[in-house]
Amino acid sequence: MRTSFSWVLLLSLFLLPASPVFAQTFGQITGQIADASGGVLVGASVTVTSAQTGTTRDTVTNSAGSYVFPNLLPGEYSVRVE
Question: pTM of whole model > 0.85?
Answer without folding.
Answer: no
